[in-house]
Inverse folding.
């Protein structure tokens, strides 16, 4: 009788053990089930920093004379910028670039020749300011300097945003929340319950001009030609379901 009772105990223990192990396997398997979603955040913003670059040149037979002329033009340009509201610390003049100037010709025997005739100096300058509208206006009417006898070449202004890091942090949170909302909708429609975030991958930030046809790239777009911009970022996330 004792042996029979002991056999029953052992049998029940085995059955209970199998049940517990099976149940643990089932739950463990369920915990590995996930929902794979992408979250998106987009923000429109206006640039608050402008960088504008331009240059002017002078040519003369001697280097000394050429430097004297370029220095004279630099003073005119500086005074013009200051008179139009640009601050001294917003103006940066780069090092003067110098190159030799040659005249090419063919002689009576059709031989090619180069004759040294002097030097060409180029002075580049850059304006960096948070007064975007002011610098925009100056860049548009820069032909006034040409009327003063200065041969000036202007580049298109570039636009930046000084609070971009703060914006990125906000957008990452928004993209993550957007991913969670999408995962909740999927889980609800499938009769499951959404669990914890298992993993997440941050996509690259794309900054394009508003209403532009710029294409996204794997490395990310960083538009500098438009004052009005659109930033976007995606989050790829895996959520546990149960």
């Amino acid at each position: 009788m004792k042996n029979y009772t002991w056999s029953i105990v052992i049998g029940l223990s085995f059955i209970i053990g199998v049940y517990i192990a099976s149940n643990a396997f089932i739950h463990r398997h369920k915990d590995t089930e996930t929902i794979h979603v992408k979250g998106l955040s987009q923000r429109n913003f206006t640039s608050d920093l402008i960088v504008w670059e331009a240059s002017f040149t002078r040519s003369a037979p001697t280097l000394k004379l050429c430097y004297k002329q370029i220095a004279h033009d630099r003073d005119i340009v500086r005074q013009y910028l200051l008179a139009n509201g640009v601050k001294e610390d917003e103006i940066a003049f780069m090092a003067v670039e110098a190159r030799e100037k040659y005249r090419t010709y063919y002689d009576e025997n059709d031989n090619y020749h180069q004759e040294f005739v002097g030097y060409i100096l180029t002075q580049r300058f850059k304006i960096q300011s948070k007064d975007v509208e002011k610098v925009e206006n100056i860049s548009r009417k820069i032909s006034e300097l040409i009327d003063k006898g200065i041969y000036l070449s202007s580049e298109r202004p570039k636009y930046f945003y000084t609070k971009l890091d703060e914006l990125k942090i906000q957008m990452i949170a928004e993209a993550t929340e957007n991913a969670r909302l999408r995962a909740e909708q999927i889980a609800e429609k499938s009769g499951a319950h959404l669990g914890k975030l298992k993993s997440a991958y941050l996509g690259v930030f794309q900054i394009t001009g508003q209403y532009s046809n710029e294409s996204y790239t794997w490395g990310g777009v960083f538009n500098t030609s438009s004052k009005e911009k659109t930033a976007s970022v995606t989050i790829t996330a895996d959520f546990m379901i149960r």
Observations:
- The CA atoms of residues 106 and 182 lie 75 Å apart.
- DSSP finds five helices and ten strands in the chain.
- The chain has a mean pLDDT of 87.
